[in-house]
Amino acid sequence: MELTKTEIIEAFKDTQDHICKSLEELDGKSKFKEDLWERSEGGGGRTRVISDGDVLEKGGVNFSAVHGPVSDLMKKQLKLEGESFLATGVSIVLHPHNPFLPIMHMNIRYFEMDNGAYWFGGGIDMTPHYVEENLAKSFHGDLKKVCDEYKNDFYSKFKKWADDYFFIPHRNETRGVGGIFYDHLTAENTGLSKEELFQFALDLGKMFPKLYSFQVNQNRNKNFDEKNIQWRNIRRGRYVEFNLVYDRGTQFGLKTGGRIESILMSLPENASWVYNFVPKAGSIEAKTTSFLVKDKKWI
Amino acid sequence: MELTKTEIIEAFKDTQDHICKSLEELDGKSKFKEDLWERSEGGGGRTRVISDGDVLEKGGVNFSAVHGPVSDLMKKQLKLEGESFLATGVSIVLHPHNPFLPIMHMNIRYFEMDNGAYWFGGGIDMTPHYVEENLAKSFHGDLKKVCDEYKNDFYSKFKKWADDYFFIPHRNETRGVGGIFYDHLTAENTGLSKEELFQFALDLGKMFPKLYSFQVNQNRNKNFDEKNIQWRNIRRGRYVEFNLVYDRGTQFGLKTGGRIESILMSLPENASWVYNFVPKAGSIEAKTTSFLVKDKKWI
Asked: Which of A88, A130, B115, B129 is disulfide-compatible with A65, CB 3.0–4.6 A?
């Protein structure tokens, strides 16, 4: 039996449920609030946002499944052939309060055209305000493990893809320590079945709260001061720069009239721009900056 | 005697000097710090930033004069005909600390090609965190006075241009109460002489500190609380969205490798994104939102 779009949509909803539940347990204080929304051309979503938590200052875990006719803009930007489409996925960005905990992002998505074409895309990447080498290694190690269960070259290819994608050219720095990113995966170009590609996405979804909980539990009780907060907010400023200037999903959403509050839930509660801020030589801030380069081998 | 580019460049430098001096007097506490920079392909600039002032939390008053060969990107994006160019101008963004004082922006610029083509561009616009109708009217009235000295239709045309330019489509709101914006003005398309267009730019530069001082002096000592700060930071978030997503100068600078800290000096020290923040009905925040529409007649 061929995998149906309904099965994919339902499994993505379950993934959202599972992640929200796990993150609420991790946080221990705040709960997600849900907004249901509908798209006039077809479909809709469940936006869930948590704020003012013990760990999470602001976090969003969004599910959406939208469908309808392919617009001219979509034809041009996504180079789609066909008349109608379905796009469904789960998108997450978490902004913790403590500067020693990382921002973490995940997206898994499935795209299908009326002409039968389909593909999977997704990724997970981590943006510590303060990079700790052993934690970045552990993060990449866990991602590699999941990738290796599916294909030998997935990790190396998707790690490179993340380095190239999560990059801020005008700063000449990566958004964080990277992770994995992939797009347009099909049975044809991977040699895997559609079911396996789907399972890969679900495995990433299942792993996400474990990855985040591990990172959080290392430094959850670490003390911080005003200087750490300032640095956190400057790093968040870079996150805002990436998302507003380069992130393809954000750009596409802004141009095509997506639900703006769902798209921009990725932006932090506070961000800061200090003119020409240069960390002191030898500081932990300067050390973090030195890690924000492409093609660093973490494992 | 034909107006030379050297005269324009020197007058723009004087304009920067005059504005910095006036703003330091207004602020009364902080002074501008200057960074000189050079562009490898030709020219450079004087970036001046003030921070931690009595009025100004962060402000930049930049002068630049860059020249060199026309790149492929410039040919494509600016539709330039010719092989080499000169671009010079003064750019200002002021972010006050007190939420009851407005953000104000000005840009005056001159562009010249080796084939003899030239044009002027510029604008002034105001973004109050809290819109006060009488202050917006006074602002527009002063802009109209300067415009009227040059041409009857300048104010109405440039006011409309500002409404269209300083607009955030994904929020369906204007950046603030607008002002004036113009581009590609030449003797041919205005019926004025090159000298008059130049004088118009200088008059705007001369007027800028007066405009800002007037606005500041109305509310300089007004008390504010945490709620006002939160609202200010949310409005600043919108300012960041406009500048990173839509502002042509910023976009062009980011893509062509301009000096990043000079380009992004326009971003505020703190900005905030709160999921789905809706001001209470009848509040001064809600009243401000109601003013952020295109084509409002202020005078």
From this structure: A88
- A63, β-bridge pairs: A46, A90
pTM (two decimals): 0.96
Q: Is the pLDDT of residue A9 over 90?
A: yes
Chain A contact for B261 (CB, 8 A cutoff): yes
ipTM for the complex shown? 0.95
Catalytic residue, from B18, B95, B97, B105: name it.
B105
Is B52 within 8 Å of chain A by CB? no
Beta strand ranges found along A114-259 (DSSP E): 118-127, 167-168, 173-174, 178-185
* Contact predicate B225/B11, CB 8 Å: no
Query: Is position B140 annotated as part of the catalytic site?
Result: no
For B271, which DSSP code?
B
State the pLDDT confidence band at A81, using cuts at 50, 70 and 90: confident
Domain boundaries, chain A: 5-291
Give the pLDDT of residue A1. 66
* Contact in structure between B29 and B53 (CB atoms under 8 Å): yes
Provide the CATH topology of domain B5-291.
Answer: oxygen-dependent coproporphyrinogen oxidase (3.40.1500)
DSSP string, B90-153: EEEEEEESSTTS-EEEEEEEEEEETTS-EEEEEEEEEE-SS--HHHHHHHHHHHHHHHHTT-TT
Tell me the pLDDT tens digit for each residue of A110-142: 999 998 899 999 999 999 999 999 999 999 999
Cβ-based contacts of A244 with chain B (< 8 Å): 240-241, 244-245
Q: What is the pLDDT of residue A193?
A: 96
Largest CA distance in chain A: 61
CA nearest to A206, candidates A49, A12, A47: A12
